[in-house]
Amino acid sequence: MEKYDLIIVGAGPAGIFTAVELLRHGSKKKMLLVEKGKPVEKRHCPKAEVGHCVNCRPTCAITTGFSGAGAFSDGKLSLSYEVGGDLPTLIGEEFAQELIDYTDKIYLEFGADPHVEGIYTGEDIKEIRKNAIHAGLKLVDCPIRHLGTEKAQELYLAIQNYLADNGVEMRFNTECENIILEEDGCKGVLLKDGDSLLPVYVNSLSMLGYETVIGPGNLPSNIAQGAAALCVAIKTKNKNFRQLAVSGGVTALLGVTEPALFGVNVRLRKPLIATTIGGGLGGLYAGLTGVRRFGGGGAGLAAIGLYVGENPMNVINALISAAIAFVATFAILWFIGFDDVPEEA
Q: What is the reported pTM?
């Protein structure tokens, strides 16, 4: 399981320049840049062919991907602190201008056009300035560096390659689902990979030494499968099916659910209703009490040792969540019943 010294979420300008600055200052940190869109060279909007927006899923090629929306803009960089927001008020006009000039130099290093627009002199400008003053306005002289749409994509590709060449790992088409906060700050991120929760489990275990999703959720779920199968074993009149339900129920309690799930519960259907409710109640308790699993492995009573930590209540709460799942599932199925499997003649 991979560990990183620094994880940057989002490959927009803020994320890009965070990585660039760290490298420029000689950082040897192991860095990961997470971006839910595509690398800049693979970003393409279908509108250019079909003439209208097709609502791309899961992400829009215009707004997401390396460099954000800037990759498809005409790339105008305003080079004056007097334009663009409240930054000069917050950090001071002189420092704001220093930062703008510093950033502009980085763009030039990666291939920006050295020509600057917006610096005009002459009688016409003087007249416009005079009229502005009379109207209570201020005409701001703002130098503008025009990258152009195609040039902007080339420039950001150069930055992307620079980051890759200097050891920054970049994971595209990867969405950050949440951040992990622990006492003195942020300890990591939870990643979403389609419908899979595996990245959540992997990242949490590798960064924190425990996880609170896969194991604590699967434990009551598996116990519920076992409870349903054992309830069927008690109520069924079919001796052969009873043997299958008993063995499936016991193995499910230990963490292997396939015999109970496919051999009994799916076959009878109503046990699935009971397991959904009972397992959900057990999982709810585990979530509310913050049950943690401290390693990878099975999700049954055979692996209950994975919940043993410094706090003895953790394993107790794990067992309580399992008990809730068992009792609730068994009681619900006992009440709603099921269509029994007839004895073969």
A: 0.53
